[in-house]
Write a structure and sequence with these properties.
Radius of gyration: 12 Å
Mean pLDDT: 86
Structural class: mainly alpha
Helix content: over 70%
Number of strands: 0
Largest sheet: none
Number of helices: 3
Number of domains: 1
Shape: globular
């Protein structure tokens, strides 16, 4: 079984690395969702609606995790 928290952290880290290379911040949520779906499907090895939905949730969570942490640190 896939650990969602670990995948969220991995997606967040990858998106941040891509942003450092030059990705515009406005595209980060889209990249996060795509990575979440790709990693989740890769781990499960099959394309099922449950895995796609889980990947979308992972991507949205990773995006929110970064935004929430950034908001707390800045205040």
């Amino acid at each position: 079984m896939i650990e969602i928290g670990v995948v969220i952290a991995v997606v967040t880290g990858i998106v941040e690395a891509i942003k450092k290379v030059g990705l515009a911040s406005r595209f980060a949520p889209i990249v996060s969702i795509v990575l979440g779906v790709a990693i989740t499907l890769g781990v499960h090895g099959s394309i099922a609606i449950e895995h796609v939905v889980t990947g979308i949730i992972v991507g949205l969570s990773a995006s929110g995790l970064y935004s929430g942490t950034k908001a707390v640190i800045k205040k």
